[in-house]
Input
Amino acid sequence: MKLKKLCVMALCVFLLTLAFSGIGKSAPEETRNVYYLEYGGLKIDIRAPIQAYTGENITVTVKTETVVSQIYIKYINIDLKGIVNATTEIYLDQITHLTNSSISSHEVQYNITIPSNISPGLTYGIISCEWELMGSPQKIPPSGFALTYIQNMELEQLQAEYDELNATHQSIVQNYTELESGLKEERNSTRNLLYIFVATTVVASITVVVLLMRSPKKIWI
Output
């Protein structure tokens, strides 16, 4: 009996652990690779969310690796930008990822706030870096890359309202069609009953006339 109780208690603890293991965990942010470089013994990998909304905080992950030894990184700078009023360029962030470093691996997650007045569309980044490979200078010119697409909230709201109105319209059309079909069936039924009534009346009238014609005439004295 004690062994059974212990087994039941262990099973309950296991089920409770499974039930509460997911509490407090948010859904993983859907990200994609937005920039990748492998050149001169250096790897740079940048990941960012696929899409975001104004006023939202996003996470941009920058990972750097040296695939050979004796690499000295002078700097890695990343400028993240967006557009306001469809014409004005603004900085989302200016990141100095590494300076004067010879580490073999480095990864940092940067929290970026999307301005509330930013225009919908793509945000973008510009990366520039310089390093030495066994004393030989290496450098890439400033390179641009697409970052995160900013959703158009007003357009999405209009789309949602349109979808709702369209669904209401379709429901009204369906109800009207069903009502019209019912009325049509009722008209057909009424017409058929009328035809039957007329036919019955005609037959009855003819029958009465025939009976009157066939009945013997009485002679009045």
